Amino acid sequence: MVMLGRTFSILARRLVDDLLSVVFPTLCALCGEPVDSLADGITCAACWSGVDALPTFARCPRCHAPRSAEATTTECPACRGMVLDGLRYIGPYDGVLRAHVLFLKRKPQVCRRLREKIQEVLAEESAFRDVAVVLPVPLHPRRLRERGYNQAELLAEEVARALARPLEKDVLRRIIYTEPHRAGMDALARARRVAGSFAVTSAEAVRGRVILLVDDVFTSGATLNECARTLRRSGARAVYGFVIGRALA
Ligand SMILES: [Zn+2]
Ligand SMILES: [Zn+2]
After folding, report:
1. Which of these, 215, 219, 152, lies nearest to 184 by C-alpha position?
2. Where are the domains of the chain?
């Protein structure tokens, strides 16, 4: 009876939420204008139109950081020390993409527009052709209990579907609980903090394979690089990264 009452109250709350969203349309998290389509999530179509792709000729071939055409022959400062074999992302971590990454930490919903952006980026990516398996950056079980889901896993599901590759949720585990990075921590401090945090549960799933790691955001790269280091130690042939937003200096 108690269970039934609880289920009913959850359903009732959902119904109220749905009714409210009809009466009071969502306002864009960025500009405050009404969001006309549910497909756009929490930002309006006009704000989404600002998420434009960077021209391919002006990117570092490895990490896709924007570069001037003359600089392409010199070493890219953005991927110096990067363990990943390559990094791709939808755009800079600000505006619409940042709003959606933050939203995804509160609600397990990937809107259609974001799904389409993921598909667009992956469709034009030749480096991912050899990818054998897609892995989400794992949360520590304690953080998973607090949040109820892993937002990187939701994104990895979309990536795996778009590439038609298997998704492995448990091959990489987070074995050490680390507090979230604080603003002001430098790259070295962040790298030290996550060192040894991950473990591979099945070496066979990794050995000799090209792996694509998925996370929501790339800032210093400490987390993704540490995951890549762990996977390489278990014999991965190559490890690529894909994120929604990348913090660009
Ligand atoms: Zn807007
Ligand atoms: Zn680069």
Report:
1. 219
2. 54-246
Contacts of 131 (CB under 8 A, 6+ apart): 163, 165, 210, 211, 212, 240
Stronger pLDDT, 135 or 38, i.e. the higher one = 135
From the CA of 16, how far away is ligand 1's center (Å)?
25
- Read off the pLDDT of residues 62-85 as tens digits, 9 standing for 90 and up: 999 988 777 666 788 888 889 999
Res 61: pLDDT = 87
pLDDT in tens, 164-190: 999 999 999 999 988 777 777 788 888
Q: Are 127 and 86 within 8 A, CB to CB? A: yes
> 34 CA distance to ligand 1 centroid (A)?
8
Which ligand sits nearest to residue 49's alpha carbon? 1
Find the 184 Cα to ligand 1 centroid distance in Å.
Answer: 29
| Fold of the 54-246 domain | Rossmann fold (3.40.50)
Q: For residue 50, which ligand has an atom nearest its CA?
A: 1
Q: Please tell me the number of the ligand nearest to residue 44's CA.
A: 1
Give me ligand 1 centre to Cα 99, in Å.
11
pTM for the predicted model, two decimal places? 0.87
From CA 108, how far away is CA 158, in angstroms rounded?
Answer: 13
**Ligand showing the shortest atom-to-Cα distance for residue 84:** 2
For the ranges 9-13, 125-129, 239-243, the maximum mean pLDDT occurs at 239-243
C-alpha of residue 43 to centroid of ligand 1, in Å: 5
